[in-house]
């Protein structure tokens, strides 16, 4: 541990200690007039000894100390190497924090933003595991042992194993509650068709039928353009050459997904990029973004002549991929995602001493005020 | 703390004090110096039985007609002693101590005067007052009794010390009022040469002169802990100095000056005592009128 000043020029404020010195000396030379009739028997001294004399030394000492502390505070004192070197055990939220044993004297924290100590309220999960482990590695002093306890399956893995500056104890524990993952439901389609588009509805009905379970109703509702949008609509197929009305555009902006037939267009935030091309490389569909919503623009008429892919057996899968793309693969066994070492260690920020200094300044100031205002003071001002 | 109201304890101690003229011979005719001598004055005092040798003219014949006995009218006899209080009210008397800025030397002198009046009152002596101010003397003619005391108090109450008293000019004005057997008591700080000279002049003319020098506690202790600008209120002279540096020398010189003044007054037959403003007022009176044999 070594103290240091981040801003040594702040010590220039030490010049202010001259102020109380001047105050306490100047009062000595100031003389009060007093009536004294026996003046004839007073002999004027040629010159009193020129000795520096100070009034109220204790008060002066406290004032000097106060100004010195303030000057040091302006110079931003820090303490290097004062970081906590206890081993750290980080437990992923959702795990039973008492089900495993830890080393004596270890600091146990939740693997959650802010790293709250275990014993406080268990935080809800937040942030990705790899990011939190990297942050924890960066915030610990070099050489501090780190152990991370995780559930067996990570659902938020990165594309590569994290690279840390230290070896990490990477352990798994049984989560308190098992979560069953369900297969995602097929997208429910809402179709709005115009006079020319009604013929194309059957291709989407066929796709919805293909998605549905064997004995379930296909999730598709087809109505004319004028029909209002149901409250729970997620995926809208717009089979009309006209531009969708403003309330539908607003619905898209709030996060809806719309597929527009050829000719129908809405203003986009980002220029559309092709997401589906035929064998010759010509675009079939392009994906654009409108605020939080997704806009899929078809470039072909929805007829088998113009778009033979409508009759292909993989059309339902294509359509589902366009409307509700599968998430990126992020699920991994925790033991397979153990971090590597090799990253450069991070420089630890020094401990800022200013809060403690502020407390000290407040105490000294209180003492100075008490000395300066107490009832019993000498005859000197 | 009014200087004109005497504290009860001081009043009690005053009962044991008395004012005695130096020359006891003037009292020889009256025996003990008791003011309530029965005498032949106008003021009626009491009836008493006729004794052989009494003047027949003093028999009250009307009373004889009623009672068939001889009675003689006794009259109040005036005291042979008149006490003159001479107060100095020059600016130097307004000096007060550092610790008690509301109790000046003049306040102490006034309290002393009131105490002396109190003693004179129950002794039955007549008393008069002269206040020596810068504008001239204020004189209360001598008299006796409680009303005379009230006159003296009324005169003393509003006076503020200030200016320079002209003793050399004024002593001739009121000096002729002093009878040859009167007791003249000067209350002053004694710093003024003219004041001492006036006391000597009165003493040399054969009068009984006494002086109580009223000094402040600062002049006795010199408790100045820091630098001060010392100001003489009468001459306006000033001296800047550091208290501790001046202290030792001042105390020596001031003690010498006090001793020199005492010797000078002794040489002229002026009785004198010193009074410090922070001391009770009966001490200088007791010291001044101590029985000669006890010295």
Give a written overview of the molecule.
- Chain A: Keywords: Membrane, Transmembrane, Transmembrane helix.
- Chain A: This is Aerotolerance regulator N-terminal domain-containing protein.
- The complex is a heterodimer of chains A (381) and B (295).
- By secondary structure, chain A is an alpha/beta fold.
- Chain A has 7 helices and 19 strands.
- Chain A has 3 domains: 2-30 and 53-81 and 351-373, no CATH class; 88-178 and 332-341; 189-323, Rossmann fold.
- Chain A is 23% helix and 21% strand.
- In chain A, the strands form 5 sheets. Chain A has a 7-stranded mixed β-sheet with strand order 11-10-12-13-16-15-14. Chain A has a 4-stranded parallel β-sheet with strand order 5-4-6-9, with no helix packed on it. Chain A has a 3-stranded antiparallel β-sheet with strand order 1-3-19.
- Chain A is elongated.
- Chain B is built from 9 helices and 10 strands.
- A 6-stranded mixed β-sheet of chain B has the order 5-4-3-6-7-10, with helices on both faces. A two-stranded antiparallel sheet of chain B has the order 1-2.
- In chain B, strand 4 and strand 5 (136-143) form a beta hairpin.
- The interface between A and B is medium-sized, with 23 and 36 residues.
- Strand 2 of chain A pairs parallel with strand 8 (227-231) of chain B, so a sheet runs across the interface.
Strand content of chain B: 15-25%
Count up the helices of chain A.
7
Give the count of structural domains of chain A. Answer: 3
The low-pLDDT segments of chain B are 27-40
> How many whole angstroms does the radius of gyration of chain A measure?
38 Å
Q: Any idea what the shape of chain B is? A: elongated
Q: What is the terminal-to-terminal distance of chain B?
A: 34 Å
- Write the CATH architecture name of the largest domain in chain B: 3-Layer(aba) Sandwich
